[in-house]
Amino acid sequence: MAGVPMDQRDGWIWYNGEMVPWRDAKLHVLTHGLHYASSVFEGQRAYGGEVFKLREHTERLIASGKILDFDIPFTADQIDEACRQVLAKNELEDAYMRPIAWRGSETISVPARENKVHLAIAAWQWPSYFSPEERLKGIRLTWSQWKRPSPETIPCKAKAAGLYMICTLSKHAAMDAGYADALMLDYRGYVAEATGANVFFVKGKEITTPTPDCFLDGITRRTVIGLAKAAGYSVTERHIKPEELSEFDECFLTGTAAEVTPVAEVSEYKFTPGEACRTLVEAYMTEVQPNKAAAE
Fold first, then answer.
1. pTM of the entire structure?
2. How far is CA 269 from its chain centroid?
3. Which of 26, 66, 184, 245 is the most buried (most CB within 10 A)?
4. Does 203 participate in catalysis according to the annotation?
5. Given phi > 0 = left and psi -120 to 50 = alpha, else beta, which region is 230?
6. Active-site option among 66, 89, 159, 241
7. What percent of the chain has pLDDT over 70?
8. Are the C-beta atoms of 147 and 192 separated by less than 8 Å?
9. Residues of the chain with CATH 3.20.10.10
10. Which of 111, 130, 127, 120 is nearest to 161 (CA)?
């Protein structure tokens, strides 16, 4: 399916409680979510036919909607079951899944409490965010010109569509300059995150990661922190100044799409993927694919 536009694929999408042919899952051009970003979503992966940490993703989706002042009209149990149905209907075992909720087209002005809230769930085959070659040698990042805003200016605890506008801009600029991604600072000048993944730095057996006080505390992030501690690493969450990057030996990103991806370069700062990166890449893949690991 590589190269096929997303709206021209075959398959099925769960849409407001029904399975709809992929190409028929449409919405009106005057949808509030399109004009005013009243939309929240999740990115989650299925391994061996099971969505990793499905309930955590579902609960975050519901919580994100509440932060944007709307209630998703389905329970957590119903959403979980719908996700499983999407995998089964599309005959997928290993897949990326995108649940998304948004305000509809009843009105097209800033206030929208009368607008119906919709929910759709799609899934498709999508390999690792970065190519195997990039992952093994470590990817190259540059600095983004955009910063993560203050939590007084954005609903930073929601996985809201509007918060990704500066991520798209940052990613495009990085790719145009020959990099795989960009690392963003926050409004105070501290290291924050990449455009779609959290970041970690390593010195010996000590791992340091930014405090998620103005960006999303990723589910994969929390999973990897637990795996790192279990592997004998200490993990510190704190504010990190950009110039501190020269003090670290390894760097890696975490996210549902990125999984665990080593980093070789952040602009002028160089890293060598080593023991920590290898350990956590392997530990994460074992965590998300326990049945495969047991079979081997």
1. 0.94
2. 25
3. 184
4. no
5. alpha
6. 159
7. 94
8. yes
9. 132-291
10. 120
